[in-house]
TrEMBL record:
Binds 2 [4Fe-4S] clusters. One cluster is coordinated with 3 cysteines and an exchangeable S-adenosyl-L-methionine. Residues 383-447 form the TRAM domain. Keywords: 4Fe-4S, Cytoplasm, Iron, Iron-sulfur, Metal-binding, S-adenosyl-L-methionine, Transferase, tRNA processing. Residues 6-122 form the MTTase N-terminal domain. Its main location: cytoplasm. It catalyses: N(6)-dimethylallyladenosine(37) in tRNA + (sulfur carrier)-SH + AH2 + 2 S-adenosyl-L-methionine = 2-methylsulfanyl-N(6)-dimethylallyladenosine(37) in tRNA + (sulfur carrier)-H + 5'-deoxyadenosine + L-methionine + A + S-adenosyl-L-homocysteine + 2 H(+). This is tRNA-2-methylthio-N(6)-dimethylallyladenosine synthase. The gene is miaB. It comes from cyanobacterium endosymbiont of Braarudosphaera bigelowii.
């Protein structure tokens, strides 16, 4: 490596996938001898790991990039890289907009960052966005947390939801083998990790692309099979997973979650809309009745399971009545948390070209009404914790009050209580809940 290149800084936008990718890229850079700098203006290499799920996510990226591109005019040795979903979507086009870039790389190329940078250091401007078979990563990610870790199990998405760019930018489904996943988890256990979250855009698709079927014709490596394996392979205390697709969530999977004690009773199952016609236009492949039935089945096994989801308002053609159906679903299910978004037309997706686009005022009005209901439901759910004793996995200090620590319940509610982080980090502590807010709790140690 050139000796004047020393510090790197990564800015990450978007979902957990991107966060996990950034940790891997940071690991590769540190293997190459770079050191992390908190201050982007001190860094010799700045990498933006970008998101394009909605237009505002994409615009944010350009405003950040523009600033550093200017800096490069004063400091020509500065290396600028764009990774992630905007890089994949725009490819070479991004160079026309920001010619100062040294490297443009799509999500499938994350594990190749080292080789790509070598080419950059030879003086090339590099664009790596062609689809490839993702090679197994053998480098060590630089993980942000010492307690909880992400483990990718499947990349890409083969669904074609009519609003969504993810299949365009993340490519086709590619599952890692159970062996590779299990050895990563064993390593995490050795490093002292207490919780893992298995990641996939459509985690229920896990294994479909791996060879092998059982005698009954069922695929050998379903996500449920993987959960049984992962459960046995280490002493990691808690296992989570995301994201689930309502269309493929099976009762066999629910039973596994019920039987396996390390699997936390929290399920993130985006429903997107509570209206059957909209669901059909979205190409989601289920009805609201089917979604309700799925939640009922989960609750019949695990009555207190926490259910969270994503929803979109203002999808093309959505009427007030159809929006009301979304409100009704939220009212009836009473989600513990819901990520809501106004529909944003995305390049290369079918719904972006449809006529009946909803105006921005209506979208933001619906978003506000939905968020209001979500807050109410979350507050009601939080109140159920009052007086109860919950097992908290302590992750870090409360950044706002350093005599407090913070962690999560098994159901993923953020919880604060008084204690010393040095003795409590990574511990499972029983905490009696004394205060509730919509999305967090406060309590005290209970013995
Ligand atoms: N794979 C996951 C979600 C991936 S994207 C799933 O199938 O549910 C994360 C969330 O962003 C989606 O659940 C959806 O609610 C939202 N989203 C995706 N495309 C969007 C768009 N064009 N406009 C607004 N929200 C969108
Ligand atoms: Fe997008 Fe649908 Fe795939 Fe989720 S399942 S990533 S919403 S296409
Ligand atoms: Fe965004 Fe890409 Fe994730 S578009 S939400 S970072 S898969």
């Amino acid at each position: 490596m050139m000796s004047n290149l020393r510090y790197y800084h990564i800015v990450t936008f978007g979902c957990q996938m991107n966060k996990a990718d950034s940790e891997r890229m940071a690991g590769i850079l540190e293997d190459m001898g770079f050191e992390w700098s908190d201050d982007p203006d001190q860094a010799n290499l700045i990498l933006y790991n970008t998101c394009t799920i909605r237009d505002n996510a994409e615009q944010k990226v350009y405003s950040y990039l523009g600033k550093q591109a200017k800096r490069k005019h004063k400091d020509p040795n500065l290396l600028l890289a764009v990774a992630g979903c905007v890089a994949q979507q725009e490819g070479e086009k991004i160079l026309r907009r920001i010619p100062e870039l040294d490297l443009v790389m799509g999500p499938q190329h994350v594990n190749c960052l080292g080789d790509l940078l070598e080419q950059v250091l030879k003086g090339n401007q590099v664009v790596a966005t062609e689809p490839i078979h993702i090679i197994e990563d053998i480098t060590k990610p630089r993980r942000t947390s010492k307690i909880t870790a992400w483990v990718n199990i499947i990349y890409g998405c083969n669904e074609r939801c009519s609003y969504c760019v993810v299949p365009n930018v993340r490519g086709i489904e590619q599952s890692r083998t159970p062996e590779d996943i299990c050895s990563e988890i064993k390593l995490l256990e050795q490093q002292g990790y207490k919780e893992i979250t298995l990641l996939g855009q459509n985690i229920d698709a896990y294994g479909r692309d791996l060879p092998g079927t059982t005698e009954t014709g069922r695929h050998q490596h379903t996500f449920t099979d993987l959960l049984y394996k992962v459960h046995e392979v280490s002493n990691i205390k808690r296992i989570r997973f995301a994201t689930s697709h309502p269309r493929y969530f099976t009762e066999r999977l629910i039973r596994a979650c019920y039987e396996l004690p390390k699997i936390c009773e929290h399920f993130h199952i985006p429903f997107q809309s509570g209206d059957n016609d909209i669901l059909k236009e979205m190409k989601r492949g289920y009805t609201h009745q089917r979604y309700r039935q799925l939640v009922n089945t989960i609750r019949s096994y695990m009555p207190n399971a926490s259910i969270t989801a994503d929803a979109i308002v203002g999808f093309p053609g959505e009427t007030e009545q159809q929006f009301q159906n979304t409100l009704q679903l939220v009212e009836d299910i009473g989600f513990d948390q819901l990520n809501t978004a106004a529909y944003s037309p995305r390049p290369g997706t079918p719904a972006a070209k449809w006529n009946e686009q909803i105006d921005d005022n209506t979208k933001s009005d619906r978003l506000q009404r939905l968020n209001h209901l979500v807050g109410q439901k979350a507050a009601q759910n939080s109140q159920k914790y009052l007086g109860k004793i919950e097992e908290i996995l302590v992750e870090q200090e409360n950044p706002k009050e350093n005599n407090q620590v913070m962690g999560r319940t098994r159901k993923n509610r953020l919880t604060f209580f008084q204690g010393n982080i040095n003795s409590l980090r990574g511990q499972l502590v029983n905490v009696k809940i004394t205060e509730s807010r919509p999305f967090s709790l406060t309590g005290e140690i209970s013995n």
